[in-house]
Each structure stands twice: as structure tokens, then as C-alpha cells.
Write a structure and sequence with these properties.
The structure holds two protein chains of two kinds. Chain A is an alpha/beta fold. Chain A has eleven helices and eleven strands. The longest helix of chain B has 22 residues. The chains are: A alpha/beta, B alpha/beta. Chains A and B meet through helix 4, helix 7 and helix 9 of A and helix 3, helix 6 and helix 8 of B. The complex binds iron/sulfur cluster (4 copies).
Chain lengths: ~290, ~290
């Protein structure tokens, strides 16, 4: 079983559309994991049935049981996050500011502060239109720690892939360079970097690749909207060469990306011309690379 | 332009790549044609508004976080620190205490509860804040070091810096991080108005509806800007009508805009329709906030 993660540094490069296209091309052989939990969109293209769902808890929030509070104010004094405020002599925790460090509960003289588990979101296992399975999630509003939810989604996908003897896990990775993307990358066999030739595209690509290097994962790159800025595109290719990143393909600027999405279809179901050919070719290359490695 | 109260506008979107940065940078430059304005990039993991300005570096400082530092000679190996850390950031390993800086949330619990003062808090660099100036435009960004996770505290610190230095500029724009989680809440929580940028596609609609939920939870006045208008379908416009959300502007889809963006050029200077849209957006923000303040 091989794990392929698709990331882009920043959103809007077509990462999710490309992941969805690969999962259609991979069909039954692929378990899909949508780890872009903060803006999970892939389900819009995969017709998931939400077969199984479960709440996801992560971290804690302090809660003050007022009946035993002697209003000494010690909790507010120690809280470094300004989460406890004295509102007309009632000490109240603002759950949005509380980091769940538990310090207040430890020093409360009457032990009237309890830490409650924090609902961080929901995760799902779905049967999807490719005849395979997708694990996805939704992060709650204002929730912290999406890294843990990402890890959960990946672990579940891995377990399913092992049980069902699937060849590949295809991960729609999280954006950014922080904790969630670190969770998306850990354990991957191959990373597909999706970028576009713009000043910010190259900049984000370099930044996210720094992270990929730390994990020592082999990487390939798809340049989307490659024809929009030939100069930048050449710069990206130079970077790929320098870093020994496999250049998978160049995709042209094409509104069929959006047209397909509007129909709830992946590009390879909608466009039977150049885009489909290029993506099919990339998918074959990726399969070859990950299978040839020990 | 006298006697006007400072106005803080946050620019947000459910996910990256919808043109949020394009809009923030263009709006900032547009305002700066007339008056002082501060643009604060709060997408601290991937700040790239700065790529669009050739400003002069005016000030630079390190962003720090506080972490405990073990003082071996004082420590009695009582084990309290490990017990009180909810984030497993300090552990006892045989005869030593080890701190994991990336996991530490700087709550001070271990440090203050250590009976012999063997864990004083010290500062550690986690990124840099930079302040640029270009005529009437002040541009502030913070960049987290790769793998660092303290987005929320960095955002809060960056806002404070901007407030202290440019609080008297009439308008401050905050380019918010993508998503609906903690960092976005932190970035938008003290804005007077939030501008949500989206695309007229199923992904755009889905992310917008999450962002709207977030803004309603925060009780923020907000309006929507549709970017790349003309692609996709009419569902975003219909959604706004149904939900009674003001559609402030529709920026047309054009290859020309995509090309200008890709080379880091300001769009409104070349395309009059975009300039008019910016004026419309600004007028609406001002009116709404004035109305709220009455
Ligand atoms: S420390 Fe405990 S008793 Fe004191 S104000 Fe806080 S909750 Fe009340
Ligand atoms: S748990 Fe920590 S962050 Fe939350 S209120 Fe208590 S001291 Fe503050
Ligand atoms: S709490 Fe202080 S004395 Fe006890 S093990 Fe930790 S550092 Fe050492
Ligand atoms: S300061 Fe808080 S989070 Fe950091 S190591 Fe100490 S107890 Fe843990």
C-alpha cells in the first residue's frame, strides 16, 4: 500500500480538482482521504453517502462551576490567554480564548473548575462514486488543532486501505506549512506539488517544499495554468530541476476546471481531450514511481 | 478626511486562492493613492501580500514565544512539571527534564508550579515581523518559521504592532488566513467589517457558507465579493439573495486579470471596472460601519 499526498502550499491552485481526478482514474484501487479539513471540498465531487460519522474531540476547555466559586480571582490571575474574566463578580471562561492548558483548574482553591473535552469537528467514512471509499471530515467553527483531525482522517484511511487490500491512499493535503500539513505529510511515499506560475505560486512552492525535504519524501510537480505566465513557468521548472523534483505535467489555463466542478464532476469525467490525457499520463507516472521504490 | 474614526476591515475567505490577496493588495494600493492606509498580512503561515509591493523595509523584529528552560542544578526531579503540562511539552526522561518547544503553548503552568524555580521561562524566536513603507501605504507582515504553530499568538501580536504604529491611519486592512478555525477568528475578531471573497463555483459556495456561519457566530457585519464572476454558476448570487447578504462587487473573470496577478501587478490600474468595484466596496464598508456606530 502506497500513500500519495497532494499539496500546494496555498489553496486555489486546483489541488482538490486534481486529487479528485486521480481518485477517479485510480477507481477501486484507491482509498481517498480528504485532509484539507479546514476547507473540505472534495466531497462535492465524489458523491459520498456519509455511511459512518463520528464526533471528534480534541483538547479541553475549562468550565467554572459557579456554585463552589469563592470569587478569589486566582484563576483569572494565572490564565495567560485572558480567557477568564471577572464579569460583575462572576468569573467566566471564554471558550474561544481558552487554550485548555488546565492551569486554572490546578490552582483553584475550591476545585470548582473542570476541564471538558472540546468538540473539534466530525469525521466520516463514505462510499463514493468510484466504487471505493473516502474518509473525510469537517472541522468545527473556531476549532483549534486541525492537525489532530488530519491525523485521524489519515489513520482511518490507512486502516481501511490495509483491511481492503487497496493499492493506494490518495490524500488531499492541508494548505499552509504548519501542523496540519505536517500531519498530512507524515508517512507519505510520494508528494505531488500543485503550483501555478505566479509570484506567489513559486514562493509558496519553495516554502512548502522546505517542509517536504525535512520528511525526505520523493516529490513530483504539476504546474497548473502553465501558459498564463511563461517567465514564471520557466523559473518554476528551473527550481524543479535544481531540487530534483519530478516534473509531472503542465496543465493549460482551462475553464473546464470550473465547468466540471459546476457539474459536480471531476475533470477527467468532464473533459475528454487534452486535460484528461495529461492527467491520465501524470497518474500513470506517479503509480510507476511509487511502485518502483522499495 | 478629518474627524473620521479609524476603520478596520478584514478580508477573509473560506479557503485560499479565491483572490483574497489580490483584493487586499489592490484595495490597499487604491486607498493609498489618496490617503494613509495600513495593510496587515495575518496569513502568518504563508504571507504573500508583500510580493505585490516594492516597499522599503522600515522596521524588522523577531516574533518570540516563551518556553521553559530547565535549570538542572536547581531541579529535584519531583516530576510536577511533566504532570501539569496538558500538551506533553515537558517530560521527565531518567535524570533529565526535556522541553519540546514546538508543543509548548506558553501557559507558564510548569514554570510557576515548579516548587524550586527550576524552569524559568525564556524567549525563543518563532518568526519575524516586517514593516514596509511605500508612499502612503504601510505594509506589515509576520512570517512564522517553518513548522512553528503559534499562529494565533503571532496574529495577535502583529495586530497589536499595527494598532500601536498605524492605529491613527483612517483605514487598516487585515488580510486574514484562510479557513474557519482559530487563526481566522483571531484575525477577524476586532475588525469593524469583514469582506468575504469567494468564487461562483460549488467549492466557492460551500466555503462561503462556512465563512458566513463563522461571521454570524462572531456577530460581525460582513459583505461578499464575488471574484472571477462569469465562471461556474449563479448559486453564490442566489445564496446571498436568499440569506440577505449584501453582494458588494462582482469582479469579472478574465485571463488578463489572471496574467496581471501572476506577474504581481496591480489590477485596478489597468482595468477600470476593477477600480470602480473597489470604490463600491469601500463606500459600502464605510456606510455600514458608520451606520453601526450611530
Ligand atoms: S480560582 Fe476557583 S474559586 Fe477562585 S475565582 Fe477562580 S473558579 Fe472561583
Ligand atoms: S484552561 Fe488555561 S487557557 Fe483555559 S481558562 Fe484555564 S488557564 Fe486559561
Ligand atoms: S517541577 Fe521543577 S523541580 Fe520538579 S521536576 Fe520539574 S523542573 Fe524539576
Ligand atoms: S509552559 Fe505550559 S505548555 Fe509550555 S511546557 Fe510549560 S506547562 Fe507545558
Amino acid at each position: 500500500m502506497k500513500e500519495i499526498v497532494i499539496i500546494s502550499g496555498k489553496g486555489g491552485t486546483g489541488k482538490t480538482s486534481i486529487t479528485a481526478a486521480f481518485s477517479v482514474l485510480g477507481g477501486q484501487d484507491v482509498v481517498v482521504a480528504d485532509c484539507d479539513v479546514d476547507a473540505a471540498d472534495m466531497h462535492l465531487l465524489m458523491q459520498p453517502d456519509f455511511d459512518f460519522s463520528e464526533d471528534f474531540y480534541s483538547g479541553e476547555t475549562a468550565y467554572i462551576d459557579q456554585s463552589n466559586c469563592i470569587r478569589c480571582g486566582k484563576c483569572a490571575e494565572v490564565c495567560r490567554f485572558g480567557a477568564i474574566q471577572d464579569k460583575n463578580k462572576l468569573f467566566i471562561v471564554d471558550p474561544l480564548s481558552c487554550e485548555g492548558c488546565g492551569y486554572c483548574a490546578r490552582i483553584c482553591p475550591t476545585n470548582t473548575i473542570v476541564n471538558k473535552e472540546r468538540l473539534a469537528g466530525k469525521w466520516f467514512i463514505s462510499n463514493i462514486k468510484t466504487g471505493s471509499i473516502m474518509v473525510h471530515a469537517r472541522l468545527g467553527i473556531g476549532a483549534d488543532n486541525s492537525g489532530k483531525l488530519v491525523a485521524k482522517v489519515k489513520d482511518e484511511a490507512k486502516e481501511i486501505a490495509l483491511e481492503e487490500r487497496k493499492d493506494f491512499i490518495l490524500v488531499d493535503g492541508s494548505p499552509g506549512v504548519g501542523c496540519p500539513v505536517v500531519s498530512s505529510l507524515s508517512g507519505a511515499n510520494f508528494v505531488v506539488l500543485v503550483t501555478e506560475p505566479s509570484v506567489s505560486g513559486l514562493h509558496d512552492l519553495k516554502r512548502v517544499y522546505e517542509l517536504v525535504k525535512k520528511f525526505n519524501i520523493k516529490a513530483g510537480c504539476i504546474i497548473n495554468k502553465a501558459d498564463i505566465n511563461p517567465v514564471k513557468c520557466a523559473e518554476i521548472k528551473l527550481f524543479l530541476e535544481e531540487e530534483d523534483i519530478l516534473h509531472l505535467t503542465d496543465l493549460p489555463y482551462d475553464e473546464n476546471f470550473t465547468n466540471a466542478m459546476t457539474e459536480g464532476l471531476t475533470i477527467v469525467e468532464f473533459d475528454h481531450g487534452l486535460l484528461k490525457a495529461l492527467l491520465t499520463d501524470s497518474w500513470e507516472k506517479i503509480k510507476q514511481v511509487v511502485s518502483s521504490k522499495k | 478626511m478629518t474627524n473620521r474614526k479609524p476603520l478596520k476591515i478584514a478580508i477573509a475567505s473560506g479557503k485560499g486562492g479565491t483572490g483574497k490577496t489580490t483584493l487586499s493588495t489592490n484595495l490597499a494600493a487604491f486607498i493609498a493613492d489618496q490617503e494613509e492606509v495600513a495593510l496587515v498580512d495575518l496569513d502568518v503561515e504563508e504571507p504573500n501580500s508583500g510580493l505585490f509591493f516594492n516597499g522599503e523595509l522600515f522596521h524588522e523584529e523577531e516574533n518570540l514565544k516563551m518556553i521553559p528552560k530547565w535549570n538542572e542544578s536547581k531541579c529535584t526531579l519531583c516530576g510536577i512539571c511533566q504532570k501539569v503540562c496538558n500538551f506533553h511539552a515537558v517530560i521527565q526522561l531518567g535524570p533529565s527534564i526535556i522541553v519540546f518547544p514546538e508543543l509548548c503553548h506558553s501557559c507558564y503552568a510548569c514554570s510557576e508550579l515548579c516548587p524550586v524555580d527550576a524552569l524559568p521561562m525564556v524567549s525563543k524566536k518563532i518568526g519575524v515581523l516586517r514593516d514596509f513603507k511605500l508612499n502612503k501605504l504601510h505594509f506589515v507582515e509576520s512570517r512564522l518559521d517553518i513548522g512553528e504553530e503559534q499562529a494565533v499568538s503571532t496574529i495577535s501580536k502583529t495586530k497589536k504592532y499595527a494598532e500601536k504604529n498605524y492605529g491613527n491611519a483612517h483605514i487598516t486592512l487585515f488580510d486574514s488566513p484562510p479557513g474557519t478555525s482559530c487563526p481566522v477568528m483571531e484575525a477577524t475578531k476586532d475588525a469593524d467589517f469583514v469582506m468575504l471573497v469567494t468564487e461562483p463555483t460549488p467549492f466557492g459556495l460551500h466555503d462561503l457558507s462556512l465563512a458566513v456561519e463563522t461571521m454570524r457566530a462572531l456577530k460581525k457585519p460582513f459583505g461578499v465579493v464575488v471574484n472571477r464572476d462569469g465562471i461556474g454558476n449563479n448559486a453564490v448570487v442566489e445564496y446571498c439573495e436568499k440569506e440577505n447578504i449584501h453582494l458588494m462587487a462582482r469582479i469579472p473573470n478574465s485571463r488578463k486579470i489572471a496574467e496581471l496577478y501572476s506577474s504581481g501587478k496591480l489590477i485596478y490600474r489597468e482595468i477600470p471596472a476593477v477600480k470602480m468595484a473597489l470604490q463600491g466596496i469601500l463606500d459600502y464598508c464605510l456606510e455600514t460601519v458608520e451606520g453601526e456606530r450611530k
